[in-house]
Amino acid sequence: IKLRGEEIGRGELHSGQLLAMGPGAPQAGLQGLAVREPVFGLPALWISADQRAEAEAAGLTVVEPAAIVATHLTELVGRHAGELLTRQDVQALLDQVKTTHPALVQELVPNLLTLSGVQQVLKRLLREQVSIRDMVTILEALADLVPAVKDLDVLVERTREALARTLIRPYRSPQGDLSVVTLDPLLEQSLIDAVAPGQEGRQRLVLDPARTQTLVDSISEAVQRALAVAQHPILICSQYLRPHLREFVARFIPQAVVLSYPEVTGAAVVQTVATVRSAAVAA
């Protein structure tokens, strides 16, 4: 699968066979080719159709080849949506909002923020698969924030807070509860202290290789523990640390969701299901 001529995803299908996937795939006693499922990297087996019932009885998810392509494409479109958003697309969105909220658009663009500036905010939101469907709320937030906030990173974070209900909706239980993975307070403070200007001048989380690997392992372990009791656990941290931790984690766990405390205030109950411990930053 390519985006503007560059490969962004790759997988292999076996015609006439089914993909049985899940943590127990290697031990299920099925006959087939052992592979990694291309979207989420789960252990999987290509099996013949007559083994479907046996695979499902073993608790594995069994899918047709066409479903794999559709899922892979959907995941990649979501992951790269920000790269697909052009200035012309943004102008079309603004024109649509202008039909119902003309004063809002006229106040914001170009008086307070350029078309390019709006595009950059939307691209940042899409990069973390945040829906931009509620353009009115996004533009209202920008119109309120831009006079006092000039830093793009801060502007995006404050806009995210205005979208708090939208942010947490995919991860809430039917009762409205939210399952979270927290950071040990000592770990969180250590990571805040480790935020520093990177090579390009932007603030980022700067850790040496040993601490990087330890932190990644600790987060992965905590998320795995959380998955045993929650379907959609999210990593939660302070408002200041969130963008830097998300940027760091995305390099190693692309599907990870990182939210700040102000962004989860709309949940009925926030339940901690795992904690990343402070040993992750031991010198």
From TrEMBL:
What's any GO biological process attached to this entry? protein secretion
The keyword Protein transport is assigned to this record: no
GO CC terms, sorted: plasma membrane
Cited Pfam families: FHIPEP
Subcellular location(s): the record lists: Cell membrane
Going by the UniProt record, its keywords in alphabetical order are: Cell membrane, Membrane, Transmembrane, Transmembrane helix
User: How does the protein associate with the membrane?
Assistant: Multi-pass membrane protein
InterPro entries from the UniProt entry = FHIPEP_1 (IPR042194), FHIPEP_3 (IPR042193), FHIPEP_4 (IPR042196), T3SS_FHIPEP (IPR001712)
Q: Does the keyword Cytoplasm apply?
A: no
Per the record, the similarity remark reads: Belongs to the FHIPEP (flagella/HR/invasion proteins export pore) family.
PANTHER family to which the protein is assigned, alphabetical = FLAGELLAR BIOSYNTHESIS PROTEIN FLHA-RELATED, FLAGELLAR EXPORT PROTEIN, MEMBRANE FLHA SUBUNIT-RELATED
Please give the name of this protein. Answer: FHIPEP family type III secretion protein
Protein species of origin: Eiseniibacteriota bacterium
